[in-house]
Amino acid sequence: MSSAIGANIRRLREERGWSQARLAREVCRAARVQGEPVGRQEVSRWETGKRTPREWLPSIAAAFGVPVESLKTPQKPAEPPLPTLADFLPDDDPLAPLSARTGRRIGIGQVGDLQQRVHGLRLADDVLAGGDLIRPALRELRSAVKLYREGTHTVEVGRQLLRQIGELAQIAGWIASDAGQHDEAERIYRIGISAARQAEDHTLAGNIAGSLAYQMSNTGREAEGLTLAQAAFNDARAEAPPKARALYLDRVAWAHTKAGGRENGQHAMRALGEASEALSEDGAGIESPAYLYWVDAGELRVMESRVYTEIHRPLRAVPLLREVLSGYDATHTREMALYLSWLAVALADANEPEEAAAVAERVISISADVASERTAERVRVVLDRLSDFADVPEVAALLADHAA
């Protein structure tokens, strides 16, 4: 019975496009109770069957505008439901405010200060690697969570704090992943998804989930990465601006690519086309979150070239990569090394080992002083690919120089 009730609550909530936090508020309003005796975590427990809302059933039914019996009647779904971001959240909420808060009163000014620091960290990531930024990033995240949990603030200020914690978690998770700390990155990403959902910012939640999906796809968890990338897109696309939809679809394309197989390759190309269409809808008068400043046609071409490289279509990949690299900002050292690494692999696939070796040498040279696990892994991939041409003098010399 409890599983049927939980499934019905979730189905009715999703049909209305409500978050779990929104349903909690509606239930309290229907019950005419003061404060918030029902919160997002309690709704989550109902939906997963961990707790049966016996005394709350009339209020839940009233909030939805349905008979109580309809909550108890098992519904046979026509097809398995799509996964949602809630499926990827931890049971325990590390963002739950403390019952006895001893911190100072937090106002919108402190939120603005945090917003500036988050943006500064994001800009620093453009030119510095994860190994250089991991400590300050984690320090900022711990400080922000402590501020939210221990400080006193209005509901609106709390929501703005949660949004900034979500943005901070996205960039801190990205930095941790770049430093090779994948377990830590996943923990941070999940905190960020939780914060964004509690703030009812579905666009931000989708961005963070897409970052986690990207990590999964790149670390041997291709099926999980694909499921999460699709869930991120499905959950947020209704209200997401064009740039955000383009980014979600970019990550769906990469997840399909890493999943492998001809059919996934076709899905990847379709997602890339849809990403381009979404970005074409952007323009003057359309507001996008500031954290999407880097999403543009050039970034879509980068992903397209990477997909072509991964599915071994070098005649398409090589011209795209050369075009991207010809106008790329050389101060973005890590990205330059990464894009060159895909060019080296594409050239090897095109049976141009001499040129591939020359590009690989640039990758290794640029990566030498970059504290990034991403670039280190790409160097390993490039050298492994070139080992097929060990009888070519230029390749043999490169492999000998970098045998370690």
Element pattern in H and E: HHHHHHHHHHHHHHHHHHH
Helix content: 55-70%
Counting DSSP E segments of at least 2 residues, the number of strands comes to: 0
- Look at the helices and sheets and give the structural class: mainly alpha
Q: Which residues form runs of ≥5 with pLDDT under 50?
A: none
The general outline is elongated
* Largest beta-sheet characterization: none
Q: What distance lies between the first and last C-alpha atoms, to the nearest angstrom? A: 61 Å
**Radius of gyration (Å):** 24 Å
Mean pLDDT: 88
> How much of the sequence is in beta strands?
under 5%
Number of helices: 19
Structure explained in plain terms:
It is a single chain. With 404 residues, the protein is an all-alpha fold. The protein is 70% helix and 0% strand. The chain has 19 helices and no strands. The protein has helices at 2-15, 20-31, 40-48, 57-64, 68-72, 108-127, 130-150, 155-178, 182-198, 202-218, 222-236, 242-259, 262-280, 297-310, 314-326, 333-349, 353-367, 373-386, 393-401. Helix 6 runs antiparallel to helix 7 (130-150), helix 16 (333-349) runs parallel beside helix 18 (373-386) and helix 17 (353-367) packs parallel to helix 19 (393-401). The longest helix is centred in the middle third of the chain and has 24 residues, at 155-178. The termini are far apart. The mean pLDDT is 88.
Helix and strand arrangement:
Elements: H1 2-15, H2 20-31, H3 40-48, H4 57-64, H5 68-72, H6 108-127, H7 130-150, H8 155-178, H9 182-198, H10 202-218, H11 222-236, H12 242-259, H13 262-280, H14 297-310, H15 314-326, H16 333-349, H17 353-367, H18 373-386, H19 393-401
